[in-house]
Amino acid sequence: MKLGPFTLSRTTGGPATVEDLRALARRRLPAPVLAYLENGADEEVTLGRNREAWRDHRVRQRVLRGVREVDLGVRIAGTHLDLPVVLAPVGLAGAYHGSGDLAAARAARAAGTRSIVSTGATHTLEEVAGEAGGGHWFQLYPWGDRELTGGLLRRASTAGYQALFVTVDVPVVGNRLGERRLGMSVEPVVTPSTAAGYARHPRWLAMQARYRRLSLANLAEPGGPRRIADTVRRQSIAMRPDLDWDDLAWMRDQWDGPMYVKGVLDPEDAALAVRAGADGIVVSNHGGRQLDGTPATADALPGIVAEVGGRAQVLVDGGVRTGHAIAVALALGADAVLIGRPWVYGLAADGQRGVARVLEILDAELRRTLHLMGVRAAADLAGRHLVPHEAPP
Ligand code: FNR
């Protein structure tokens, strides 16, 4: 998508920012589903800091740099992307809109980027590969035993997935109070007592009907029960709190393509991941949904770039909502960003068109930001494009 610098300002009406799409999503989704999407762990300190920390940085405005066209292209996992924004894996996408993972993958491809299909997707990874073009990326939760995990890796490889993202920050589930209070659990079903308040609402009834059709499509046994709770029970899908670096090395052996380790916040872990054969790191605190009180990802990023940058690619997610945040992330050394909740806002608001709109907004914002900074290419962004932090008094 090639928006000129003035195109967006001429567009009137409709959602103009990610925040606008969030407002639409908030109007459409029943409270328990919205809580599941929006909430963070415990006191939500990390959730809040993720967004603020990008805003703590000032970008340099340089003028008269002769920049006619801005190039947003980057190369991630051996693939050229037209913009440095990837759709993060988000489970249960079908809960927000029936088109779920398919809409995400199609919108990503149309915008010249990729979506990372979650282990917890509500479409099978084969359906996404078959119906949304090939070359997508797969996220693995190393749940369950090696037979299950190895089987998923073989299926992803056979279906043509080109990169693997192993999520390592969920040894146990974070304490997400918003969804707990509303009765959401592994299965997106509310308890009878909490459902009472919504029971007659037409939107809620429609949502419940959709839930009954939802399954953890990648994990359900063919021909077996499709209900999420049954799948979890039968497949002994449980978090494995005792996973270690040997398990990661084993996964490395099972996967031929590029492998990224998602959910790293500490430079020592980044170095260990690279030593275990990772091609890249995703600096992430799971959108503030796991360990509360960790650094924001913008604060953790520079230390990890210093440790492994040059040896491995470094991606980052958490609180990225604007072109400014993307520019800051790249200037701090990230190769690209992932967005989680933002694409789901678009999905909930308007299916595939809504996801496309989110990507279009971020493309236009980043393009405009780079023009105003006097920077020709997103891949050129570096520390020199930020105003140095003032020394504390
Ligand atoms: C997630 N995330 C996630 N990560 C992952 O590796 N596998 C998954 O299935 C999920 N599921 C999931 C569900 C929901 C509702 C959310 C909000 C997040 C984490 C996700 O990939 C990403 O790290 C964060 O969402 C990034 O933060 P922002 O962009 O949401 O602020």
Automatic annotation (TrEMBL):
Entry keyword annotation includes Oxidoreductase: yes
Superkingdom of origin: Bacteria
Named cofactor requirement(s): FMN
EC number in record: 1.-.-.-
GO molecular function terms listed in the Swiss-Prot or TrEMBL record: oxidoreductase activity
Domain FMN hydroxy acid dehydrogenase: 10-391
Any matching Pfam family: FMN_dh
Swiss-Prot/TrEMBL keywords: Flavoprotein, FMN, Oxidoreductase
Similarity field: Belongs to the FMN-dependent alpha-hydroxy acid dehydrogenase family.
Protein name: Alpha-hydroxy acid oxidase
Taxonomic source organism: Dietzia aurantiaca
